[in-house]
Design a protein that fits this description.
CATH class of the domain at 64-170 and 272-299: Alpha Beta
Strand content: 15-25%
Distance between the termini: 16 Å
Radius of gyration: 21 Å
Largest sheet: 5 strands, parallel
Order of helices and strands: HEHHEHHEHEHEHEHEHHEHEHEEHHHH
Number of strands: 11
Number of helices: 17
Strand order of the largest sheet: 2-1-7-8-9
Amino acid sequence: MKYLDEFRDAGLARRLIDRIRRTATRPWVLMEVCGGQTHGLLRHGLDEALAGVVELIHGPGCPVCVTPAEAIDFACRLSLRPNTVLASFGDMLRVPGGVGSLNDARSQGGSVRIVYSPLDAVELAAADSQRQIVFFAVGFETTLPATALAVLQAEARGLANFSVLQAHVRVLPAMEAIVDAPDNRVQGFLAAGHVCTITGYDDYRDLARRCRVPIAVAGFEPVDLLEGILECVTQLEQGRCDVSNRYERSVRREGNPAAQGHINRVFAIADRPWRGLGTVPRGGFEFRPDFHAFDARRRYPDPAPTLPVLDDGDCRSGDVLSGRIRPHECPSYGVACTPEMPLGAPMVSSEGACAAYYRYSTRRPPLACPLPR
């Protein structure tokens, strides 16, 4: 655990590891559903520290990774329209769609601008009324309030040249799809703390009790992650299945009502395709009728056929995103697929599981000695 020493609470983290190993009487399989959590686990070697006690598998915790190819291809076509600018977060530019990426569209003359906030895209529209500005909105519930605020601000300012290509998704329905799958191995979840900051966690109780899976709301630092793992292991050992908030400094039971109010004013829950999972019932959002004028799909009807949601060929990113395999179990990982020449979205995104494995798996030495049981 050399890299755990870089963390200021390394002593507490080691004690938590010891408690987990002493609490578990058998191996348990847990899934973290946030890409930031995946990077934290691998960066600090927590997966190796808990080997033989807790098997950590990685869920679809990266909104860039689960954005369907069809949406990316549509964004590329929009960028190629005359007098149209496609505004996007920078981590979307290299993600492959069915026929290319936004970087490829740029090389063909497409107008793609990197922004750091949806409100930046609103300002682009305000500054240039002669061009259409389309914001490519991706993300979990964490970033959805900012998209809703951008739409509300554009409405208030009368910006008829602003619209949104909306691909936001909901985390809880994806967790339900994973645990309901016939080949599911997940026995407990680390829920994404940043998502629960917005949504709260009451809605997770039905999943925990119906499917008999404990859920711990967790943060991103080693101690946060280990406290969540310990909570799940303790519940499993005791035969309990409930939701526990282990990220109390940021998450409240009710979440953020003000942010929820902005979301609910602009968007309604809808079925949504996820890359790697297919169409997830109630897995995303759609514009409410009062805001259809800002929906890029309605403003720019697209005659192109819908492309498959699941990945094909030598890339098994769909299996990685659903937790069926780990990145290194894909035959293309590190060979045909690298961060420089990625085949799938999990190797492109900074939060993708494949990128995390590639970055950290070669830099961690083996443990000097076994941890006590």
